[in-house]
């Protein structure tokens, strides 16, 4: 489904990503772990078209996404929850959730169905629907950002540092939501970045370790082994 082919990115004259190659398959959850500053956020922004790489390709069903404007990602069923959430403060939680589908001109029935599905995965959002985006705590904003990404992300969802700053109770709820996601949307591909791998528990099927802007060889070998096992 998603293939990163020799991605290198320079920011402010410094090499941030160095020849990153990896594959994320349908019905898989891939964790990209590493210390702060190793390029995890830059990697997701590159996939989303928000950062232009120095070299490489981002293939989605064999099409290079780098040839498409960033706003076309939503049309392809790709959802994104950035590290800083980006919740619109003047909109209610429900309006924030519906917004990406409305921008894509989905009909009301389709949006209602998607919202119902999201509320099954993230039931904590039910009591927040009428709340203003400005009234959310940081942790609640993370939950809303997850729900919004799931509204539009029917094939691939990218979650950037979702557990960062979450209180233990909310972190547990977030993890439970990701586990429910497997049963509600078994074909979805999810990519999660995280600095603290222990917070991910048994959520990912595959873990890639990013160090100094490059995927560690052991992570690539492990990913290849898991992909081969899935094929059998």
Which secondary structure elements does this structure contain, and how are they paired or packed?
Layout: E1 2-11, E2 14-24, E3 29-33, H1 40-47, E4 55-60, E5 63-64, E6 78-81, H2 93-103, H3 108-121, H4 138-152, E7 156-160, H5 168-184, E8 189-194, E9 206-211, E10 214-215, H6 217-231
Parallel strand pairs: 3-8, 3-9, 6-7, 7-8
Antiparallel strand pairs: 1-2, 1-4, 4-5, 9-10
Helix pairs in contact: 2-4, 3-4
Please tell me about this protein's structure.
The chain has six helices and ten strands; from the N terminus they run βββαβββαααβαβββα. With 232 residues, the protein is an alpha/beta fold. It has a domain at 2-86 and 156-231: 3-Layer(aba) Sandwich (Rossmann fold). The strands form two sheets. It has a six-stranded mixed sheet with strand order 6-7-8-3-9-10, sandwiched between helices. A four-stranded antiparallel sheet has the order 2-1-4-5, with helices on one face. The chain is globular.
Percentage beta strand: 15-25%
Radius of gyration: 17 Å
CATH class type of the domain at 2-86 and 156-231? Alpha Beta
Q: Do you know the CATH topology of the domain at 2-86 and 156-231? A: Rossmann fold
- Count of distinct strands: 10
Briefly say what this structure is.
With 232 residues, this protein is of the alpha/beta class. It has 6 helices and 10 strands. It has helices at residues 40-47, 93-103, 108-121, 138-152, 168-184, 217-231, and strands at 2-11, 14-24, 29-33, 55-60, 63-64, 78-81, 156-160, 189-194, 206-211, 214-215.
């Amino acid at each position: 489904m998603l293939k990163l082919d020799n991605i290198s990115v320079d920011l402010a004259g410094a090499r941030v990503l160095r020849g990153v190659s990896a594959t994320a398959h349908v019905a898989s959850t891939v964790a990209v772990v590493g210390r702060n500053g190793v390029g995890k956020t830059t990697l997701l922004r590159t996939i989303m078209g928000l950062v232009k790489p120095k070299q490489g390709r981002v293939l989605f069903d064999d099409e290079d996404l780098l040839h498409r404007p960033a706003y076309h990602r939503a049309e392809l069923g790709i959802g994104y929850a950035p590290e800083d959430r980006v919740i619109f403060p003047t909109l209610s939680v429900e309006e924030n959730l519906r917004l990406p589908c409305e921008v894509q001109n989905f009909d009301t029935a389709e949006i209602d169905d998607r919202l119902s599905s999201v509320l099954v995965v993230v039931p904590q959002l039910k009591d927040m629907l009428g709340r203003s985006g400005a009234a959310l705590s940081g942790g609640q904003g993370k939950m809303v950002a997850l729900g919004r990404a799931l509204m539009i992300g029917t094939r691939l969802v990218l979650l950037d540092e979702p557990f960062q700053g979450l209180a233990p109770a909310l972190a547990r709820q977030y993890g439970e939501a990701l586990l429910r996601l497997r049963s509600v949307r078994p074909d979805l591909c999810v990519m999660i970045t995280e600095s603290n791998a222990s917070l991910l528990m048994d959520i990912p099927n595959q873990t890639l370790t990013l160090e100094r802007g490059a995927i560690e060889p052991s992570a690539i070998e492990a990913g290849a082994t898991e992909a081969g096992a899935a094929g059998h």
